[in-house]
Design brief:
With 485 residues, this protein is α+β, with helices and mostly antiparallel strands. It has three domains: 32-128 and 231-268, D-Maltodextrin-Binding Protein, domain 2, CATH 3.40.190.10; 132-227, D-Maltodextrin-Binding Protein, domain 2 (3-Layer(aba) Sandwich), CATH 3.40.190; 276-450, Orthogonal Bundle (Lysozyme). The chain is built from 19 helices and 14 strands. It starts with a helix and ends in a 5-residue tail after the last strand.
């Protein structure tokens, strides 16, 4: 008996729905073939992002997750109206493999663009230029000057990294060049191995070196081993270019409005200003002087809801944690309070560490309270530090000059370029408060940012290294809600 057309049609529809429901997780709405990858992401409300733990990409800091790649992704998902799901595989090589087969939508992991990788991955617009650098420890290893010098020591690099391809190319003209492949460690851990003398050399991208060397001041750059290269997001190859096209628009936009420059300044702008001697002196004082005053910094921090290490960094910049410090202008004590500020804060003895730290903390919080509320963190804190040093009036003058010069008065990146102009008559005559030694607050803020970062490292080293080591399970997934920068 022949079935009617209507019954046959119903059976086909039923079988089609079964096929979709038993597929790769797409719901029946995906039956509409015109739905793009970008549309699916928006419908699901989730962007899957492969990344890695590294100071240059994604890590958990005192205020929560951060890193340049993390901030870029958060801006991107805000633009899409979705949330980001960060996936951290157990080793670097899996980032490339999982991206290639489409287990995530993008890889935002500080990946360098190479001809070899372009065969299997589609790269978005480049957002940062780097070089690959050879790292060694001074006084433990003789500084290598050429590739041939590496034969006298142990060179170790991360398996699957672009550094391996660079070494393979170098080996063509240097047949004695040898190296070990590390499948378990991060760049951070390889720095630690060099620092301990367990290996002689490693290779890192210049942006990593800029951040990590502050924590290992005895590590040095021998030389660049590559030509300049570029970092970019990677996507799986697909005939559907909707997500790729959106990433292109995104990077074009954040380049045009300077958002990318501001993010790079946020993570890298201060990192190169801490010199070797200052770094080593700071570490000695952390051991010998800080323990005596740490409880007072912690007490002040608990009152004001601020990380105690920020107050400690301010105190170190002011006096090197010296209760008897005094300047030619009469400011004195750990927090180097003026007589007027001490009176305003109700401080009777500026040389008393308890009173000085309490007064300095309250004075900083007043500076912070006076910063316009539209200025977001971390720029708000950095401007408050500048005001602590040079005064609120001169900071406001610099903000006016920044705007006059086409900058953003609410971004530290632009304000720190305007502050030094307060030393030049053609500029300070246009301001309300006149001349100021504008270079000083810039150095002041950058130093405190560095001291704070190093202090976080010294007090949380084991936690940080543990975070950057391989996850014990197959992979770690962190959910991060989209938020405004």
């Amino acid at each position: 008996m022949l079935l009617s057309r209507k019954i046959i049609f119903r059976i086909l529809i039923f079988l089609s729905l079964l096929g979709f429901l038993s597929g790769c997780g797409d719901d029946p709405q995906s039956m509409w073939n015109n739905e793009s990858i970008l549309d699916k992401i928006k419908r699901s409300g989730k962007l899957k992002v492969l990344t890695r733990y590294d100071p240059t990409t994604y890590y958990e800091g005192p205020e929560g997750f951060t890193g340049l790649e993390y901030d870029l992704v958060q801006l991107f998902v805000k633009r899409l109206g979705v949330k980001a799901e960060f996936i951290v595989p157990e080793n670097f090589g899996q980032i490339l493999a999982k991206t290639m087969v489409g287990e995530a939508h993008i890889a935002a992991a500080g990946l360098t663009i190479s001809e070899n990788r372009k065969k299997t991955l589609k790269f978005g617009p480049p957002y940062r230029r780097i070089t690959q650098q050879l790292i060694y420890r001074s006084k433990r290893s003789k500084r290598p000057k050429t590739i041939s010098d590496l034969s006298s020591g142990i060179l170790e690099v991360i398996n699957g990294s672009s550094h391996v391809n660079t070494l393979l190319n170098l080996k063509k003209n240097n047949p004695n060049l040898e190296w070990n492949l590390n499948t378990e460690s991060s760049s951070f851990e390889l720095f630690d191995l060099v620092n301990q003398g367990l290996i002689d050399y490693t290779i890192a991208d210049s942006n990593q070196v800029l951040l990590i060397r502050r924590y290992y001041p005895k590590l040095y750059v021998a030389f660049d081993i590559s030509e300049p290269m570029f970092l970019a997001w990677a996507l799986p190859w697909s005939s559907d270019t909707s997500l790729y096209d959106e990433t292109v628009k995104f990077f074009n936009d954040i380049n045009s409005d300077k958002t990318l420059d501001q993010l790079i300044e946020r993570h890298y702008g201060h990192a190169g200003s801490l010199h070797y001697v200052d770094n080593c002196t700071f570490r000695k004082h952390v051991v010998k002087r800080l323990p005596k005053y740490k409880p007072e910094f912690e007490k002040a921090a608990e009152i004001h809801g601020i990380d105690w290490r920020l107050f400690a960094a301010i105190g170190y910049q002011e006096s090197h944690w010296n209760t008897d410090a005094v300047s030619p202008t009469g400011v004195r004590g750990i927090m180097m309070l003026t007589e007027g500020t001490a009176k305003q804060m109700g401080i009777k003895n500026r040389n008393n560490p308890t009173q000085s730290i309490s007064g300095g903390a309250r004075y900083f919080m007043l500076r912070k309270k006076n910063i316009p509320q539209q200025i977001t963190e971390p720029d708000q804190t950095w401007m408050a530090l500048a005001a602590y040093n040079v005064g609120h009036g001169h900071l406001e003058d610099a903000r006016v000059l920044a705007e006059m010069r086409g900058g953003n008065p609410d971004k530290w990146m632009d304000v720190k370029q305007a502050l030094p102009l307060l030393t030049e008559k053609k500029w300070y005559k246009k301001t309300r408060h006149g001349y100021a030694r504008g270079y000083e607050p810039v150095r002041y803020v950058e130093n405190i940012r560095n001291y704070y970062d190093v202090l976080v490292w010294l007090t949380d080293k084991n936690k940080i290294l543990s975070q950057h080591s391989n996850p014990s399970n197959n992979e770690t997934i962190k959910q991060s809600l989209s938020h405004a920068y």
